[in-house]
Design goal:
Blueprint lengths: L4 E5 L2 E4 L1 H5 L1 H6 L4 E4 L12 E4 L8 H23 L4 E4 L6 H14 L3 H11 L11 H20 L9
Parallel strand pairs: 2-5, 3-4, 3-5
Antiparallel strand pairs: 1-2
Pfam families: DSPc (PF00782)
GO biological process, one term: negative regulation of MAPK cascade
Keywords: Hydrolase, Protein phosphatase
Length: 165
């Protein structure tokens, strides 16, 4: 049986629905922000800051496209909360696909990783992630191309740019 959550980078946790409702996990890890990557799973009342990423993991084209459309907002909202110093849990039902994709977007934007490196990093820490394959791989590749091809080159033109931007 897999752990309910894994810390992918300090203070950024990837987990399943059990992590989002486990009082001991939330308290012990000081979880302050939850990104719920489902359309209908409830939030724990213990969590002060809550975001919903309304995507189903049913492999339908519309859901893959929705994840692509949400990718920038997902990455930059997670980064905004992360920069405030808040411990964050990103979860879906199993912590394998939707939430793993959201964390991959964040690693691409925050650490300037490329898609394959971000997915490998996540899978190394949370082996069930992207199993048996990355259902939202196309969405992750899309964000990778957009970030490295459009966003990052523009950021580098800014006088205050640093790697953590």
């Amino acid at each position: 049986m897999s752990a309910i959550a894994h810390e992918i980078i300090p203070r950024l946790w990837l987990g399943n629905v059990k992590a989002s409702t486990n009082e001991a996990f939330i308290t012990n890890n000081h979880i302050h922000v939850v990104f719920n990557c489902t359309k209908d799973l409830p939030f724990s009342p213990m969590i002060p800051i809550k975001y919903r990423i309304p995507v189903d993991d049913n492999l339908q084209e519309i859901e893959i496209k929705n994840m692509e459309l949400w990718s920038s907002e997902i990455a930059f909202k997670i980064m905004a909360e992360y920069r405030k110093g808040y411990p964050i849990l990103v979860h879906c039902m199993a912590g394998m696909q939707r939430s793993a994709a959201a964390v991959a977007f964040t690693l691409i934007a925050y650490q300037h990783m490329h898609a394959l490196d971000a997915m490998r990093h996540i899978k190394q820490i949370r082996p069930i992630a992207f199993t048996p394959r990355a259902n939202f791989g196309r969405s992750i590749d899309y964000f990778d191309r957009m970030f490295h091809g459009e966003i990052l080159p523009e950021m580098k033109k800014l006088p205050y740019h640093s790697k953590s931007d």
